[in-house]
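User: Some background: our group keeps a shared notebook of sequences we're curious about, and every so often someone picks one and asks for a predicted structure to add to the entry. Today it's my turn. The entry only has the sequence so far, pasted here. Could you supply the structure so I can complete it?
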Amino acid sequence: MVSSIFDPQYFPMKKIITAFAYLVIILFGLSAFGWMVKHITKGDKDFGTNLTKGLDSFVSFLDLFEQSVEEVKKLPETFVPTPKDFEAVNNLEEDLIVLTSYSNEAKNRTVEIRNLRDDSVLHSWNIPNPHQEHDRIMDPLLLPNKTLVYSYNGVTGIRAVDSLGNEVWKQDTIAHHHSMNLDSAGNIWACTYTKENGGFIIYKGFYHLDGRELAYIDNTISKLDAKTGHLLFHKSITEILVENGLENILIKSNNSDDPIHLNDVQPALRTTEYYQEGDLFLSFRNISAIIHYRPSNNKVIRLLEGAFYSQHDVDFLNDSTIYFFNNNSQTLWLGRATTWRTADERINAGDFYSNVMAYDLKNERYFYLSKEAFAANDIFTFTEGMSEILANGNLWVEEQNSGVLWVLNGEEVVYKNVIESQHPGHHHLSNWTRILKDYDKQ
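Assistant: Of course. Here's the predicted structure to add to the notebook entry:
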């Protein structure tokens, strides 16, 4: 008897025929797909806008994926990898309004007024970036009527724009770097370089040592009219040191190219027994020194040195006390000489963290603010760094290199967070976030 193909013994053959049919259909589909892609690439056939775009996007997926991976690998230094175990803390009970800047998706710069308590954005500016992708807007300044004063750090002069981003004025005879602050008359004091031969960061100073001429980058301080940008005062730091018999402190720095490295110019807003309205406190990172300077008579009132290193951001605690962010680090990070043998028994000199120090001008003594909290939370930044005592007495800290922002109440962490970015796994590098204490009054 002849068996039917529907008998169980023929069932495997049916599966093979079905699979073969599917294979033919798939091969036909792939062939048709390849044919369409080929002609879309050549541009000699039109399959309709939607179908053409869809096919192009589909076949470009791997290229786009590879491109995105490469972009993440090559992200500019304005982005910081976020640790996988990072845990944010936000126990703010009051608004904390800041002026912050970061790289946006258009590769320009966003400057915004943000409330860190709820991460709401109260106002923002989009600033074009014709410079390198890693160039930063640092320490922008907010004036009344939402006039914004900013620069690209060490790259440009100073600009002022209105609330809509329209230019109000620009000052290009100097280059701004690091800080800007307002004095009691509403003028702007800034850390600057002098422009010469089209350049800013140039070897302007020099001295002789052991028959050698050592050239170095000079710094300047500048006062600008906040309404017009006109230069009202401009003075070389080298000249200030020489004219006050302090040129010897230049050789304290282990960076002979950049021994001064001015990072803050903080004007006194009133007269007290220990400083006069209009006096300046100047912070020099690479000399680990703060100078109390009086522009009215070109006199250095005090030279402050001590157990602080690479410090930044001088502020006033009260009428007799200043405070500042102490990086507590070398000015240059040098590797050890590999030819020297490591001892069998080593001596531990301890752990070092950044901190905030204060100096009592009356009693001539230093003391710390919330020092234990820095050690307990591993707060350290090799360069830059900011601190400010808030209206409620809490201590604001910008751990700049890591991009982490802190608020400390004694040893308690009230706030710890980062500014999230458009790149997963990365957050924005902080750029001298400014506390806006009186924003509600503007």
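Suggested note for the entry: The CA atoms of residues 192 and 204 lie 13 Å apart. The longest strand covers residues 174-182.
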